[in-house]
Amino acid sequence: MHNCSECDHLTRTSPGQVFLLCRFWSARYSPVEGAFETYGKDYVVTHCHIQPEAPACPFFQPREVSHGAASHNGPLLHAH
Known about the structure:
The protein is of the alpha+beta class and 80 residues long. The protein is built from two helices and three strands; from the N terminus they run ββααβ.
């Protein structure tokens, strides 16, 4: 099971931020037709900013691995 920190939609907008911005759910217009209506306003509002450890939603989009990192054998470090 994936979590939000692995999703390309999640982004940090300030250094000390605990709840990060989800570009999918915070978009002015739904990137997927009917998503906002299907999940409801409460779900959309609470998922606009979310903790990275939260379980990923059905619209999870994996982050792209940077060039050369796919063959790296050790753990990948993330800049915060």
